[in-house]
Structure formats: structure tokens, C-alpha cells
Amino acid sequence: xxxxxxxxxxxxxxxxxxxxxxxxxxxxxxxxxxxxxxxxxxxxxxxxxxxxxxxxxxxxxxxxxxxxxxxxxxxxxxxxxxxxxxxxxxxxxxxxxxxxxxxxxxxxxxxxxxxxxxxxxxxxxxxxxxxxxxxxxxxxxxxxxxxxxxxxxxxxxxxxxxxxxxxxxxxxxxxxxxxxxxxxxxxxxxxxxxxxxxxxxxxxxxxxxxxxxxxxxxxxxxxxxxxxxxxxxxxxxxxxxxxxxxxxxxxxxxxxxxxxxxxxxxxxxxxxxxxxxxxxxxxxxxxxxxxxxxxxxxxxxxxxxxxxxxxxxxxxxxxxx
Amino acid sequence: xxxxxxxxxxxxxxxxxxxxxxxxxxxxxxxxxxxxxxxxxxxxxxxxxxxxxxxxxxxxxxxxxxxxxxxxxxxxxxxxxxxxxxxxxxxxxxxxxxxxxxxxxxxxxxxxxxxxxxxxxxxxxxxxxxxxxxxxxxxxxxxxxxxxxxxxxxxxxxxxxxxxxxxxxxxxxxxxxxxxxxxxxxxxxxxxxxxxxxxxxxxxxxxxxxxxxxxxxxxxxxxxxxxxxxxxxxxxxxxxxxxxxxxxxxxxxxxxxxxxxxxxxxxxxxxxxxxxxxxxxxxxxxxxxxxxxxxxxxxxxxxxxxxxxxxxxxxxxxxxxxxxxxx
Lengths: 321, 327
Hints:
The structure holds 2 protein chains of 2 kinds.
Chain A: H1 2-18, H2 26-57, H3 64-67, H4 75-81, H5 99-130, H6 136-148, H7 153-167, H8 174-198, H9 202-210, H10 215-226, H11 228-242, H12 247-252, H13 273-281, H14 286-317
Helix pairs in contact in A: 2-14, 5-8, 5-11, 5-13, 7-8, 8-11, 9-10, 11-14, 13-14
Chain B: H1 4-23, E1 49-54, H2 59-71, E2 77-80, H3 84-93, E3 99-102, H4 111-117, E4 122-131, E5 133-136, E6 144-146, H5 147-154, H6 163-166, E7 176-180, H7 185-195, E8 207-209, H8 212-221, E9 225-229, H9 231-236, E10 242-243, E11 245-247, E12 252-253, H10 257-261, E13 269-277, H11 278-283, H12 285-296, H13 298-304, H14 312-326
Parallel strand pairs in B: 1-2, 1-3, 6-11, 7-8, 7-9
Antiparallel strand pairs in B: 3-13, 4-13, 5-9, 5-10, 11-12
Helix pairs in contact in B: 2-13, 3-4
Protein name (chain B): Phosphate-binding protein
Family (chain B): Belongs to the PstS family.
Keywords (chain B): Phosphate transport, Signal, Transport
């Protein structure tokens, strides 16, 4: 069946390339053209966007982008302030950087992972290994998980902001943002973990149980370790969605800061990278907008890096039974 | 399962990166203690946190004050949010922030009662002036608008689709409008204080955006287009836009730092404020130190961040208001 389809595709391609075909009627050509257009439309737009951003950010791929905090002063005014004994490089918007955002987003990701992974994996293990698959409860949870995965991020921000206000936690601190982002990626973590557990063959479980292990021992020592590649891939993909989110963090009250977060970082005020890029992009000064473009490329590199780690983990630890 | 080696390598790696970024260069400002001429009477021994939120228009000015104070050696930790003037007052009146940035005065009917209910007393400090600038595409042969023509152009009842609908002497050109979003203080000011229609709205068939750079690109790229935003955005894009002069009865006046300061650019010159919680000011030394520093260096901060500094009378009024908080 599939080989027939492949042959057909190969024939179509070769006949198109050679220009000699018995069924070179207009409709099949138009259809093929539409397919090619669909393929290239998305890729071309993405490519153009990245190249455009990289070009406009080109003047700002320097170390100041990582080592400096946000700097607002008009470059000329910063020069004028040099007369008062201040270093213009520490004020001028031409040297603005995203240090607080990069640090903040790293703290945010670690805290989010610490919250979301244990909760998500435990929930998935319960649903997959312990809960009755036919009960009404499981079905309701199943449907709701799918729905929650599609809820807009800003809603989770409002939820977390209200939660923080009720508990009486200060606005704009790391844990508030981490709660919002953890809630955001929890459905994704649960769903992918369930998929990973489901892909572990039943023979493994039955073998373990037959040798006298309890369900708990089977899950902890056999099923869960076998599912690690799938779980970590899903979790990292969830985290790389979370690192790019700005909307929920606005609701939490994240603001611009120019100081290093203090230990323990979860209760410290932090700034998030995407939010800082957003602020820089809407600045009136062109030098700051350039920095925003450079920041976008850095954020993109961070996300691609996280996705690459997910792929490496999957390839390295994948097992076939 | 041999997952451990990788995990063992990954976690410290990420942690080390975070530590490196937090640690590097953190002490550079501390070394300059004492040498910071122009720091005024900044007391670098005061520590603490200051929470600021509010207008995105005033945001660059307050961050400029924060940056300057850090450079002068203060360890005070100021965080500046920008959830808009209205959003800022919401959290300010709930007692969650110490200072609220505002591009319009607090609303007597909606926001003041909330503050009173929660027992939040505040002081209004004017920190700068902004010349709301009406801009058109550079090729449009219109140079000056009267206030009545502004109302005819932006008012909620306006049906004007051609510049000749506003004034027969204007060119025969279609009008395309780009205006700030209805949540911004800039929109509020134009609607309530300039157009002054009862509904406090503007016409809704103009394109609107919260990002002023979008408005700049819209007006500069569309023949016959008109828009308005803060003076800073015009100043940074003066080569692509034309600012209209405004005639409020005494002849046409162009927007500029001078005309905004001396009050002749009316009614579009608007005050920008910070609202300080009296309780925070008297009970938190960090808040008092930051506000004192902000006001003492107001001109440096305002011009440095691209705003128009206050004239002497208004600056004296701000200093008087500040002195009144403690007493």
C-alpha cells in the first residue's frame, strides 16, 4: 500500500522533471503546484522574518547585550552626563542590554521545571498506571486536560495573579511567574508523559508483575525509567514554550529591574527576557529597537538550543523493543 | 536506565550559567561611591525595595531615574512595571505598589474612591511635560489645525473622510488615521481634555495600536495619513513625519520643548505624573530616598530620557508637594 503511494509519487516527480508525461493534465499540475506553494509559504515567511530581524539587530550582537541592564538615556545626553563623573557607557541606550531578562528567564525556567515536572509526571503516572481507564472520572479528566492545553496563556497569568494576591505574595517575584508558567505547561507535560508511558510495551509490566513485583515497584523500577526519553522530550518542549511567554508575566506584575536577584531566587524580583524584548521593541529610540531585534535572535537561539537538547535526549536514550 | 550521566552534567551547567550571569560585573557601581558628582544628597547606605507600576509613557522616565540612582551607587532595588495608567492605579489603590506612573490625573469618579476605601493616601507629583503631537504624512499640504478642526478630525461624531471636509482650503486627499489604543492615557487625554465630548471617546474608524512605533510607520507610509502620540516619538522620527501646528486662538504654535514648557502649546501640552503613596514614603526609607533623588535630579532624568523638563514654576510646585508628604 505504502510502496504503491511512493511509486506513484516518484513517477509524478520524475515525469514533472522530465516534462514528459502521459497524464500531464492541468488539474494534477495545479494540485502539485498548490502543495509546493503551501510548503514554501510557511518556510519562506519564517525565513524572511528571521533574516529581517537578524539584519536589523546586526549592529547589536555584542557582549553588552548580555552584560548590561536596560539603559534608557539618549546617547547624546549620556555623553553630556560624562562631565558629572558618570560613565556614559553605563547610561547610554546605545549600550542597552538584557542581562536582567536573561538571568530572570533562567531562574524562571528552573523554578517552572521544579514545579511542573513532579506534578505533571505524578498526575500522568496515576492516570496511566493506577486509575481505572473506563471510569467516568478518568474520561472527564482526559477531556479537560485536552481543553486546558488550548487555553490562552494570559488566562493562566490572571489565575496565578489572583492566586498570588489571595496568598498575599508580593507582585513581580519569580515564584508568581513560575506558578503561571507551570500551570500553562502542566497539561502538555501530562499529555506527553501519558503518551510516553503508553508506548512502554505491556510485556515489560507483565514480566515485572509475574516475577512478584507490586504495581508500585513495577511503575517505579520498570515503566517510568523506560519512559524517560519521551517524558524529558515533552517536558523540554513545554519549557521552551514557556520561556517565550510574555503575556502571563505582565499580569503577574513583572517590571524592569537593574539589580541581580538574591538567593533564594524564587522570592526575588526578576525580569523576563521576552517581556524585556517587548519593552525594547516599543521604545522610541532606534538603537533600542535594534537591541530588541538582536534580543529576539538570542531568544530564538535559546529556544532552538532547548529543542536540540530534547532531540539529543530522545535519540540517545530511545529504546526499541 | 543510563540517564544519570547526562542529567548530572546538565543541571550544574545551567546553574553555573545562571550564577555567572548574576555575579559578573555586579560591583562596578559600588566602586564609584563618593565620586558621583551631581548625586545630590543621595544616601548610599539606604537599602530596600521600591515597587513602581503604571503608564508606559512615563515608564522610560522612571527607569532613567532608577538607572541614574544605581549608577550613583545606591543599592535600592527599584522595579518598574508598565501595565498602563489605569492598570497601575488599580494595583496602587489596592496598596500593592509604592509609586504609580500616570500620563493623566487620577480619575475622581472611578479610581479615587477605591484608594479611599483601601486607606491609600497619595501625593501627586508632576515630573515632566509632554507635547501631544499631531503628525501627518510629510507630503500633505496642511500645516496648522485649530482646536475646532481637531475635534472635526478626531471627535466621535466625525464623519470626515477627506481633508476638504474639515477645511475647504485643505487639499483634496483622503484621510487615514492612526491613533493610540483606547486603554492608553494618551487616548484618554485627547478624548477627555481636547475633544472633550461627553462620551470621552474618539471616532472609532481610525486604526489604533498600543505600540507607538506602529503609528509612526502607519503615518509615514500612507499619503494623507494623520495620527498623534507623545513628542518623543515625533522627535525620534522627525525626518519621516510632519508635526502640525496647533491654533487655540492665539495663532499657530508648533510643538517643541519651549512651547510645551511655557504653556503656549495648548491644549495639547499635558502633564506627566508620579503618584506616591504617603504611607510608603514615610514608612519605607527606600521609597523616600528614591522619590527625593528622582525629584532632585528631575531635569537630568527628564531630558536624558527624551522628555520635556518642567518650567521653574511647575518644578517649585513639585518640590513643595514633595515637602508636604512628610508633614
